[in-house]
């Protein structure tokens, strides 16, 4: 398939693929959509999730308990529970079970109201943090929730300690050549400046062994879409995980954001997203760089993007991926694109 072809082709029929193992790397809403998409194709989906969030409920629990922030992990669990394909498969066997799963997925996402100490905390964040504190092992706590709710798939952190994102940001001083160091995921995501480079604290953290094993064991590994500096790039800054990405025989697919995000990537072109990722992980190799056809019109811009994809050793794949009128990936279109590539 050439770079000008649509990865989705004429629209493959979505169907489960026997024995397909997929590992999805990301965080937040981008990973939620990817997991929803992949669940159309297989129940054997492992989510590997960033653990640097320091805002909202996650930030409060992290600061108070010293535990891994639970928010993105909770969202990934809810995505696997409530994916339309997962619920439909349950309805065919046990409608009552499907209804319970759908209800519990909503419950895990429900945030307490009011103005007290619990205000703003999702139920799932408190449940996961409580189990983590009791077991002393976030992987065991996540596996316990998977077993408790009888969820297909697995959710894993990319590291076993809470991480801090630190960025060199330009545009905050009078001299545009001067960078300022900004620390914290929320600060990086909302900065009015332009992040140039990000680091993790602690530097070169130990990865999650189970996450590396899931990457090595997968048939397909996806990275992105998501907040580029805080949900995508951190995955290649964990040496154990980058090594697993280098060693795996899985087909590796990089899904690029449909549009720049205010704050983190204001003014970024699709090509710029690739250049920044490559600067952080020049040894990273992927098979497919997948972009939305509307975000990169045919012509010179797409030619430049093909060259940028080539720096990863990848083919550029162009497909209709967006929910119409939005900058959000459509899970059905994403799943069809994955099918088109692996078929």
Automatic annotation (TrEMBL):
The keyword Cytoplasm applies. It holds the Pfam family CofD. Its main location: cytoplasm. GO terms for molecular function: LPPG:FO 2-phospho-L-lactate transferase activity. Keywords: Cytoplasm. InterPro entries: CofD (IPR002882), CofD-like_dom_sf (IPR038136), Gluconeogen_factor (IPR010119). CDD domains: YvcK_like (cd07187). GO terms for cellular component: cytoplasm. GO terms for biological process: regulation of cell shape. It is found in: Cytoplasm. The keyword Cytoplasm applies. Gene3D superfamilies: CofD-like domains (3.40.50.10680). Belongs to the gluconeogenesis factor family. PANTHER family: GLUCONEOGENESIS FACTOR-RELATED, UNCHARACTERIZED PROTEIN YVCK-RELATED. Required for morphogenesis under gluconeogenic growth conditions. This is Putative gluconeogenesis factor. It comes from Gordonia neofelifaecis NRRL B-59395.
């Amino acid at each position: 398939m050439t770079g000008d072809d649509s990865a989705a082709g004429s629209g493959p029929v979505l169907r489960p693929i026997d024995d397909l193992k997929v590992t999805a790397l990301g965080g937040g809403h981008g990973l939620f959509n990817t997991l929803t998409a992949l669940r159309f194709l297989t129940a054997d989906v492992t989510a590997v999730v960033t653990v640097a969030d320091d805002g909202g409920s996650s930030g409060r629990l992290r600061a108070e308990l010293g535990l891994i922030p639970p928010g993105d992990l909770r969202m990934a669990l809810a995505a696997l529970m409530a994916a339309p394909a997962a619920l439909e498969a349950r309805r065919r066997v046990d409608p009552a079970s499907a209804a319970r799963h759908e209800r519990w997925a909503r419950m895990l996402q429900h945030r307490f109201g009011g103005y007290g100490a619990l205000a703003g905390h999702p139920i799932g964040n408190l449940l996961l943090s409580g189990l983590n504190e009791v077991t002393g092992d976030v992987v065991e706590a996540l596996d316990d929730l998977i077993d408790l709710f009888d969820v297909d798939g697995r959710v894993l952190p990319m590291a076993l300690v809470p991480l801090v994102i630190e960025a060199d940001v330009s545009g905050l001083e009078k001299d545009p050549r001067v960078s300022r160091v900004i620390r914290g995921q929320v600060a990086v995501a909302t900065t009015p400046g332009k992040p140039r480079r990000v680091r993790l604290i602690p530097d070169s953290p130990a990865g999650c062994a189970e996450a590396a094993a899931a990457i090595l064991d997968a048939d397909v590994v996806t990275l992105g879409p998501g907040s580029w500096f805080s949900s995508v790039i951190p995955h290649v800054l964990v040496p154990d995980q980058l090594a697993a990405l280098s060693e795996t025989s899985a087909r590796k697919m990089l899904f690029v954001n449909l549009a720049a995000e205010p704050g983190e990537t204001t003014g970024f072109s699709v090509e710029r997203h690739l250049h920044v990722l490559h600067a952080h992980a020049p040894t990273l190799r992927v098979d497919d760089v997948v972009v939305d056809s509307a975000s990169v019109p045919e012509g010179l811009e797409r030619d430049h993007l093909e060259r940028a994809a080539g720096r990863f050793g990848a083919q550029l794949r162009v497909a209709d991926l967006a929910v119409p009128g939005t900058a959000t990936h459509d899970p059905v279109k994403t799943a069809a694109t994955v099918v088109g590539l692996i078929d």
